[in-house]
TrEMBL record, chain A:
This is Acyl carrier protein. InterPro entries: ACP-like_sf, PP-bd_ACP. Residues 1-76 form the Carrier domain. It comes from the Bacteria.
UniProtKB/TrEMBL annotation, chain B:
InterPro entries: AMP-bd_C_sf (IPR045851), AMP-dep_synth/lig_dom (IPR000873), ANL_N_sf (IPR042099). Keywords: Ligase. It comes from the Bacteria. Belongs to the ATP-dependent AMP-binding enzyme family. The keyword Magnesium does not apply. Residues 47-322 form the AMP-dependent synthetase/ligase domain. Signal peptide: none annotated. This is AMP-binding protein. The keyword Cytoplasm does not apply.
Length: 80, 457
């Protein structure tokens, strides 16, 4: 079962941040921790955790946590 | 001719702001903000957006010496640099007030901070620009560059890059970084449009701009090429792209072969370049025709430059008019500009029978992590100062990982990670942290970094 809690843990680890500051609105490049480097680490982490492949368009699309969830949803990974 | 005059001579040059879509001709930026007609120091915290560019151009025109700094620099570092150098003007959009400064509206959209009390700190008139040797550590060590340094380097680069008066060029590398600055100066002198942006290649907006404005070229440090590869850039045809450049360290073998193939299939010349802040930009480039046969070479010196290998050590020495006038660590150092044509690069090199140069090692304790130069001694000091004076030994593992060894058992990996994240914005995935019982020393009592590195292999 995929939970938001688990997703936030993945994000927190990849971006080196605390889960407490993660919200749907959190945006790429809005905090120093979410830069191009950690974005690619995040993509890799999501690929491994959910056993999926994330294509170019989706990497560019994932500019907020909400949009990231949409991308996962498209791949049939829904959060509860 | 001054750099500023060369830029103004390119009358068709325009700057586009990607956020508003607004464009300005270079002539519109001539004396467009009110700066006092005097000498002094101006700090410009640039974010590569059009206002930063306008401020920079105005200061270039003025008699002020400019320090170009990264707008994202940690606030404590900003303050400590300002305490040391006491600039007369500060451009920083991230702050609403600065102690000891008053806000001045110098144009409709631009505000500068002006020092309340003008101090007479003599600055050598040859120093036009101060660039930080490291973009992130807040080390007050600046490289002193003259207008002539910048002009000479720009002209040498224009000699080999296929820049035309129709080109549309994005500023996708910060101009506070010498590579980004050389992209800025050369294209201001010769191309048609500069697209001011702080978007990166992982943002959709960047690729929308890429299409809308029809970028003629893209530049990148190795890490940018890694990202381009990850997002499948090299699998596609890009109609308007004419050539690409790279600098800031070696590309991985895998990426070099990808670039060779891409360059050949799509007829996109790919220029790899070698340079340093101390040389105001570039020192050597590899001609795209040589990419296939000498892909690991830094090529040959740029026009007007020469290399020599120091006897005994094989340290690469560069000669040219773009060589800087010394370092500054404080105000006192701004009094002098030591004109010299000779630069000890700190890199160890070899030369093949046909005159091509190859970098084989490094003398200085400097590593490149994601294209950013990191001085390992400085990292040791930052850790010491932030973690109760404890001792740290830092080394680099193949320009990929920063290795941190500590002696105090009670320290935690997390506390080290936290400092490096806050102060240097280093991601923990690029750190290798380990406790060691004692420091290996050489026979003359210095830290034996070689022994430490050996243990890591």
């Amino acid at each position: 079962m995929n939970t938001t809690e688990q997703l936030y843990k993945v994000i927190a680890k990849a971006l080196d941040i605390s889960t407490e500051i993660i919200t749907d609105q959190l945006e790429y490049q809005s905090i120093v921790e979410w830069d191009s480097m950690s974005h690619l680490i995040l993509v890799e982490a999501l690929e491994t955790t959910y056993n999926i492949e994330i294509e170019t368009e989706d990497i560019l699309e994932m500019s907020t946590v909400a949009k990231l969830k949409d991308v996962l949803k498209k791949k049939n990974i829904e959060m509860i | 001719m001054r750099l500023y005059d060369l830029i103004q001579q390119n009358k068709n040059l325009r700057f586009i702001d990607t956020v508003s879509g607004k464009s300005s001709m270079v002539t519109e930026f001539h004396k467009s903000i009110a700066i006092e007609n005097s000498q002094g120091l101006g700090f410009v915290y640039s974010d590569n957006q059009i206002d930063s560019i306008e401020v920079f151009l105005n200061f270039l025109e003025s008699n002020f010496t400019i320090s170009l700094l990264n707008a994202q620099l940690n606030i404590q570092f900003k303050q400590s640099l300002e305490d040391i150098y006491r600039p007369y003007y500060i451009y920083d959009t991230s702050r609403t007030e600065i102690e000891g400064y008053k806000k001045c509206s110098v144009s409709e959209s631009i505000t500068l901070f002006k020092r309340k009390t003008k101090q007479e700190n003599p600055i050598n008139k040859d120093i036009k620009l101060l660039l930080s040797t490291s973009g992130t550590t807040g080390n007050p060590k600046f490289v002193k560059l003259s207008d002539n340094n910048l002009v000479k380097n720009a002209m040498s680069i224009l000699d080999y890059l296929p820049i035309t008066s129709h080109d549309i060029v994005p500023l996708n590398i910060p101009i506070t970084y010498v590579y980004g600055l050389s992209i800025f100066t050369t294209n201001c002198i010769k191309s048609n449009t500069i697209v001011c942006t702080n978007k990166d290649v992982l943002q959709k907006d960047f690729w929308e701009d890429f299409k809308i404005y029809k970028f003629s070229t893209l530049s990148g440090v190795p890490y940018v090429y890694e990202m381009l590869n990850r997002i499948g850039f090299f699998k596609k045809e890009h109609e308007f792209l004419r050539y690409m450049t790279q600098a800031g360290g070696k590309l991985s073998e895998k990426l070099i072969s990808i670039m060779i193939a891409y360059s050949k299939t799509h007829n996109i010349p790919f220029f790899t370049q070698y340079g340093q802040t101390e040389a105001a930009g570039r020192m050597a480039f590899l001609h795209p025709n040589d990419l296939l046969t000498r892909e690991y070479s830094i090529g040959k010196p740029i026009k007007g430059g020469e290399f020599e290998l120091k006897e005994g050590t094989n340290e690469l020495i560069y000669y040219g008019e773009n060589v800087f006038g010394g370092y500054a660590k404080g105000l006192d150092d701004l009094v002098t500009f030591n004109k010299s044509n000779k630069l000890f690069t700190g890199d160890i090199a070899k030369k093949d029978a046909d005159g091509y140069y190859y970098i084989v090692g490094r003398i200085k304790r400097i590593m490149k992590l994601f294209g950013t130069r990191i001085n390992l001694d400085e990292v040791e000091l930052i850790l010491k100062n932030n973690l109760d004076g404890n001792t740290f030994i830092c080394t680099c593992i193949e320009d990929k990982y920063l290795s941190i060894n500590y002696l105090n058992k009670e320290l935690t990996d997390n506390s080290i990670k936290k400092v490096l994240r806050e102060k240097l914005n280093l991601h923990s995935s690029s750190l290798v942290i380990k406790y060691i019982e004692n420091i290996p020393l050489t026979t003359n009592g210095k830290v034996d970094y070689k022994a430490i590195t050996k243990n890591e292999d």
